[in-house]
Amino acid sequence: MAEFKDAPPGASLLVQSTVWLENRFPTLFAEYKKHLSEYYAPKNFNWMYFFGSLALLVLVIQIVTGIFLTMNYKPDAALAFASVEYIMRDVPWGWLIRYMHSTGASAFFIVVYMHMWRGLVYGSYRKPRELVWIFGCMIFLALMGEAFMGYLLPWGQMSYWGAQVIINLFSAIPFVGPDLAILIRGDYVVGDATLNRFFAFHVIAVPLVLLGLVVAHLLALHDVGSNNPDGIEIKAKKSPKTGIPLDGIPFHPYYTVHDMIGVSVFLLAFAAVVFFAPGLGGNFLEYNNFIPADPLQTPAHIAPVWYFTPYYSMLRATTDVMVTILVGLTLVAGVLALLFGGFGTKGKIGVAVAAIVLAALLETFDAKFWGVVVMGASVLIFFALPWLDRSPVKSLRYRPRWNILLYALFVLVFFVLGYLGMKPPSATGTVISQAGTLFYFGFFLLMPWWSRIGEFKPVPDRVVFKPH
Ligand code: HEM
Q: How many angstroms separate the alpha carbon of residue 125 from the centre of ligand 1?
């Protein structure tokens, strides 16, 4: 057992209690130092670094409001819709809890998208933070599952038909698809069994996984240290006396105070939505979801909530024509790789065989299946980012100027895809989303090539810090 320390004579009650606790729970104090008061973060964090702590805040809001919702919600197909109405009308403050939870879902995605965007522009996914990024991508997948399953619970028309459409997609997977869809539903159609299992996953299984992943995400980050807007490794320049990075400042109190600005602005915007526009024009709560689920009446237009629509758009863009384009692109890529790839004979044969096999597979299965593959790949591709980016510098600040344009175009395409995914399908919309899908995948798949070209600016030795 470690030595017990004594409080200094005449110490206040607070100091005495702290010493008492430290003697009995030294790990708590050691972890506080390691992760807060002696975690040295780069001094040049900007507002883009608010979103990690905001994601933590939203996670807490969702868990707390979720617990209170569960006290009055009924996971039963015959009672679920009415129980949500009961929460809204009769439970004291129920409307606030419910609106906080529904707004929190969208807020979570806004915050996490901004957080991922920050990672993208500053190259935070690059060595040595690959695992931090991978845990982040796993969090993103869990978050999508959590949101999808939560959306079924109010048992409105959109809950029901949205789940029906998405689960049916799984049946397009060759061989195992139909059985897999039944396994997910627990029935031949979305029904009470589906609601029950989604409830179990939404309230306990996925939140536990999410919490575990968030802990892993932060531990992995604190092992390697934070990146910063300059993409400079601050651990490379340490004070010879203290061993502390010269450009590092303790996370607490500096960034706990800095983050309060982010929290204040966020809470203002959050409260504005919760109190004045909880549905946000049908975007945070869809109009059709105020109608109870009716298995006999399919709504004219079924669209997922906004945070899923970019991927949904890519699913819908994968028509027969698109598959033919993909066959053509696969063969062209194969020929280009053969001509300019610099492979040996064995490599060339490998590339040719791979291109032919992929083209043949594309022709074998129908477009619906490839749509599912494209939609899945559009999310999974984030995992590969650390290995796709070959730029000599991390941060966009020191990359060629045209990269800024390219990143801006990427965001624009993401928004356009998102917008089109909310709208009913149209001929023009399909062509635009096909072009957008090709750009989206081109951005990632051609990254090993384009990230290396152009004129890079010299990266300074120390971080650029402007006091504000
Ligand atoms: C529940 C969701 C999440 C929570 C609570 C969370 C939390 C955090 C926190 C508190 C930090 C440190 C502060 C900061 O750098 O902003 C951080 C850093 C980071 N996160 Fe997340 N995160 C989440 C999701 C994600 C996702 C989805 C990704 C990417 C796919 C991601 C990638 C990163 C990266 C790369 C860093 C290091 C950034 C740097 O050092 O520049 N995170 N995260």
A: 10
pTM of full prediction above 0.90: yes
Nearest CA to ligand 1 atom 13: 52
Question: How wide is the angle at C-alpha 373 spanned by C-alphas 368 and 376, nearest 5°?
Answer: 125
| 254 CA to centre of ligand 1 in angstroms | 18
Expressed in angstroms and rounded, the spacing between residue 213 Cα and the centre of ligand 1 is 11
Looking at domain 31-279, its CATH architecture is Up-down Bundle (1.20)
- What backbone phi and psi angles, to 5 degrees, belong to 43? -80, -5
Task: Determine whether the shortest distance from the Cβ of 52 to ligand 1 is under 6 A.
Answer: yes
SS (H, E, C) 306-347: HHHHHHHHHHHHCCHHHHHHHHHHHHHHHHHHHHHCCCCHHH
Which one is the CATH code of 303-453: 3.20.20.370, 3.40.50.11740, 1.20.810.10, 1.10.540.10?
1.20.810.10
Among 44, 139, 381, the mutation site with the greatest number of ligand 1 atoms within 8 A of its Cβ is: 139
Q: Is 139 in the pocket of ligand 1 (CB under 6 A)?
A: yes
Which pLDDT tens digits describe the chain residue by residue (468 residues)?
A: 668 999 999 999 999 999 999 999 999 999 999 999 999 999 999 999 999 999 999 999 999 999 999 999 999 999 999 999 999 999 999 999 999 999 999 999 999 999 999 999 999 999 999 999 999 999 999 999 999 999 999 999 999 999 999 999 999 999 999 999 999 999 999 999 999 999 999 999 999 999 999 999 999 999 999 999 999 999 999 999 999 999 999 999 999 999 999 999 999 999 999 999 999 999 999 999 999 999 999 999 999 999 999 999 999 999 999 999 999 999 999 998 888 877 888 888 888 899 999 999 999 999 999 999 999 999 999 999 999 999 999 999 999 999 999 999 999 999 999 999 999 999 999 999 999 999 999 999 999 999 999 999 999 999 999 876
The alpha carbon of 455 and the centre of ligand 1 are apart by a number of angstroms equal to: 29
Cα separations in angstroms, 366 against 318, 321, 372, 429: 10, 11, 11, 21
For residue 444, give Cα distances in angstroms to 127, 217, 229, 254, 448.
Answer: 18, 23, 22, 36, 8
Q: Does the Cβ of 122 fall within 6 Å of ligand 1?
A: yes
Ligand 1 atom nearest the C-alpha of 116 is: 29
Q: Note whether 31-279 and 303-453 share their fold.
A: yes
Domain boundary assignment for the chain? 31-279, 303-453
**416 within ligand 1 shell (Cβ under 6 A):** no
> Cα of 206 to ligand 1 centre, how many Å?
18
Sign of the four-CA dihedral 193, 195, 196, 197: positive
Ligand 1 pocket residue status of 49, Cβ below 6 Å: yes
